[in-house]
């Protein structure tokens, strides 16, 4: 039996708790001066206790208003702007949302403000559902959306059975990459990530270890340190004698390809580089990046379809979309010392 989510509080409920009329609540939240400071404080406290905010959606000129999907991203604006994945995701969400008459409400926040924005957007009825990205292994947002009664879908590795997820079928991706690399003579391969706390990072670590064991590759792991004086030099100094690396971030992979030769490491002559993501960025650097193209647009369409059903009150389950495709380019070649 599907559990009924908690209902949103109403202005009448806030008024009853504060012992005032609904019009007094309205006056306080509209900034009108005809309510005493003590009463206004009591009203705001009641609103906080009930997790209520004014219904901004009802103020739309049409009086009807469309639904909106909330996408709250805890990243700095410069990081977000340089990440091609998010550009593809936003583009991929646009058409399926337009097809069902929804809009996208997107904001960038600091980690400390993340929960507050979820609560405010939901209480103010600015959004009708949330799409969660960058899910962490112990992610407080999962409990939060459950407490709020907000429909939500995770994009990435499933973390909590109570919140459905849209996951890329990655089972064969590492096998495909390592088959490509072992064919070129590589036997020592490192996996490089820049977000060890994310659920999908740990899931990829496990799949990499399994694929490495199956293919006879000696695996190693490294975390990108963006705070290092020279992050590329720092990484190359820590990965040791590996002859190939698989990098989660396409942007970081491009930075390695561009800067490694300046440090005396030729790509791909001494080090082959594979990016876990693929976009226009992979084709701008020289040598062009061998990369895995993910079905970002398919993931976006699937997530929107699940969220629409959740808002209607339907029960849904997690979905898996098509796997990544290996795009072989010039950043991978024969391992050093491999006979021609």
From TrEMBL:
State the PROSITE patterns in the record: HTH_CROC1 (PS50943), HTH_LACI_2 (PS50932)
Spell out the SMART domains in the cross-references.
HTH_LACI (SM00354)
Every HTH cro/C1-type domain range:
10-46
Any GO molecular function: DNA-binding transcription factor activity
In terms of InterPro entries, this protein maps to: Cro/C1-type_HTH (IPR001387), HTH_LacI (IPR000843), LacI/GalR-like_sensor (IPR046335), Lambda_DNA-bd_dom_sf (IPR010982), Peripla_BP_I (IPR028082)
Q: Which domain of life is it from?
A: Bacteria
Domain HTH lacI-type as annotated: residue spans:
9-63
SUPFAM superfamilies with a match to the protein in the record: lambda repressor-like DNA-binding domains, Periplasmic binding protein-like I
Q: Which Gene3D superfamilies match?
A: 3.40.50.2300, lambda repressor-like DNA-binding domains
Q: Which UniProt keywords apply?
A: DNA-binding, Transcription, Transcription regulation
One Pfam family hit: LacI
Q: What is the designated name of this protein?
A: DNA-binding LacI/PurR family transcriptional regulator
Ranked from the top, the taxonomy reads: Bacteria, Bacillati, Actinomycetota, Actinomycetes, Micrococcales
């Amino acid at each position: 039996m599907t559990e009924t989510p908690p209902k949103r509080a109403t202005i009448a409920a806030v008024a009853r708790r504060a012992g005032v009329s609904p019009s007094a609540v309205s006056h306080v939240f509209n900034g009108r001066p005809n309510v005493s400071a003590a009463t206004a404080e009591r009203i705001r406290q009641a609103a906080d206790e009930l997790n209520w905010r004014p219904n901004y959606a009802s103020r739309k000129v049409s009086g009807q208003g469309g639904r909106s999907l909330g996408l709250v991203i805890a990243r700095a604006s410069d990081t977000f702007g340089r990440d091609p994945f998010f550009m593809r995701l936003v583009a991929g969400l646009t058409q399926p949302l337009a097809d069902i008459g929804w809009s996208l409400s997107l904001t960038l926040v600091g980690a400390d403000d993340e929960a507050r924005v979820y609560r405010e957007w939901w209480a103010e009825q600015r959004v009708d559902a949330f799409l969660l990205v960058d899910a962490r292994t112990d992610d407080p947002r999962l409990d939060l959306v459950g407490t709020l009664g907000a429909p939500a879908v995770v994009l990435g590795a499933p973390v909590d059975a109570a919140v459905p997820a849209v996951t890329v079928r990655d089972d064969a991706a590492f096998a495909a990459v390592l088959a490509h690399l072992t064919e070129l003579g590589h036997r020592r391969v490192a996996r490089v990530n820049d977000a060890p706390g994310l659920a999908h990072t740990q899931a990829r670590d496990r799949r990499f270890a399994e694929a490495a064991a199956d293919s006879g590759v000696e695996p190693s792991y490294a975390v990108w340190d963006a705070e290092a004086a020279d992050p590329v030099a720092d990484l190359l100094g820590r990965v040791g004698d590996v002859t190939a690396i698989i990098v989660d971030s396409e942007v970081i992979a491009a930075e390695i390809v561009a800067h490694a030769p300046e440090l005396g490491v030729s790509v791909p002559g001494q080090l082959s580089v594979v990016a876990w993501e693929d976009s226009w960025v992979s084709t701008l650097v020289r040598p062009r990046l061998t990369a895995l193209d993910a079905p970002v647009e398919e993931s976006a369409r699937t997530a929107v379809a699940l969220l629409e059903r959740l808002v209607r009150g339907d029960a849904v389950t997690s979905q898996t979309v098509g796997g990544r495709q290996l795009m072989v380019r010039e950043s991978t070649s024969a391992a050093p010392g491999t006979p021609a």
